[in-house]
Amino acid sequence: MTQAAVPLPATPELRIPIREILPWAVFIGVLALVVLYFVSTEQGALALFSNGYVHEFVHDGRHLLAFPCH
Ligand SMILES: [Zn+2]
């Protein structure tokens, strides 16, 4: 007893549009680096803003991520 092979339905070709994603990936990467700078380094002599508001705003995140603070 033989059974005929049932052909599988054709699956659509999956393509990842790298050229469309790349500018957004670079933008998100730069944005992440800016946020990482403010969380990790914005204090003391390296501070861009002298009033300390940015440092206090991200202070809990700094301790959460184990960056040295005080
Ligand atoms: Zn602290």
TrEMBL record:
<keyword id="KW-0472">Membrane</keyword>
<dbReference type="InterPro" id="IPR012667">
    <property type="entry name" value="CbtB_put"/>
</dbReference>
<keyword id="KW-0812">Transmembrane</keyword>
<dbReference type="Pfam" id="PF09489">
    <property type="entry name" value="CbtB"/>
</dbReference>
<keyword id="KW-1133">Transmembrane helix</keyword>
<feature type="transmembrane region" description="Helical">
    <location>
        <begin position="21"/>
        <end position="39"/>
    </location>
</feature>
<protein>
    <recommendedName>
        <fullName>Cobalt transporter subunit (CbtB)</fullName>
    </recommendedName>
</protein>
